[in-house]
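User: Can you predict the 3D structure for this chain?
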Amino acid sequence: MQSRTGAKTFVEITRLIVVLGMTALGYTLGRSAPRALPSWDPGTLVFVCSMFGAALGYLLGGVLGRLLLSAFGVAERRVDRAPASEVIAGVLGALVGLLAGILFSMPFLLLLPAVWSAPITLLLVYTLTTLFFRLARVKSKDLLAMAGLGQRFTTTDVFGKNSSEKPCLLDSSAIIDGRLLALSRSGFMPGPAIVPRFVLEEIQSIADAGDSRRRRRGRRGLEVLDALSSESDLAVIDDEVPEVQHVDAKLVHLARRIPAALMTTDFNLQRVAELQGVWVMNVNRLAEALRPPVASGDELRVKIEAEGTEEGQGVGYTEDGTMVVVSGASGRVGEVVEAIVSSAHQTSKGRMLFARPRDDQGPG
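Assistant: Here is the predicted structure, written as structure tokens:
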């Protein structure tokens, strides 16, 4: 209710200002019009022109006030999504661009007629102001740091307390994996968890996906974050890293800037990050190290989820997510079978087990 009242007040004040301006303009025109309209009474003409200006100002003022209010709303939403450092640097850059535009336009103002110098000046001022704003916004961190205004990330800023533990930057693949909450509860995370805003938006887009499996994984990721926020230190930061486009590159850049450990299940992201000196915690690698060894001849129970790529194969998964390829089980999708491990292979995405059903095994 308060925001609506404030918006209405802004529109009415804008309308009042425009009405006063248009009334003054109508009064001025009415004073000079008797020469063109000698049959009109001067007082009547001034009154008519003033009233016409006021009426026109009332209409234009309402339209202008609503347009300005809508533009302010768009600006507020953009500023709300942008980090404060980018806003400050962008405003300073725009001021520098404005001054540069005025300076470069001085020769045109002095040497050319107004009909030519005015549009050239407006074009220079607009172009340089926009250019310097965008450049300063992209390099906001570096520019503020050079000016002594940059601030290094500390756990006190985000969590309200100082900590010597290294914060952990979460990738979307680690969040939707499902094992992150167990890692946090068991104390394997090195420090407080940090989720960039762009990662949270990526998880939300997965949760809203049309594919049911992706939608289920995205919602599980949101549930994991909700549980983490209530059980441990979790912060969502607004660092957008506008100078980088790809999400993986943003994460590596942000992990180096903070600095923080990067938690992911993406093997390719791990290799790229480690090449740039980022400490990476791969959930799959940790699970592989803690998983009890499975040797040939071991027995296990597995539910056949789908048919394999080869004829006669059925594919299932153990409780820890290990893929099990069971020969001769393609016709038993949906059943739980007892199988004997014949071999195990390590791939870039994790471990894969090959097994065969036990003799005379019925439906599970």
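The longest helix spans residues 42-81. Residues 360-364 have pLDDT under 50 and may be disordered.
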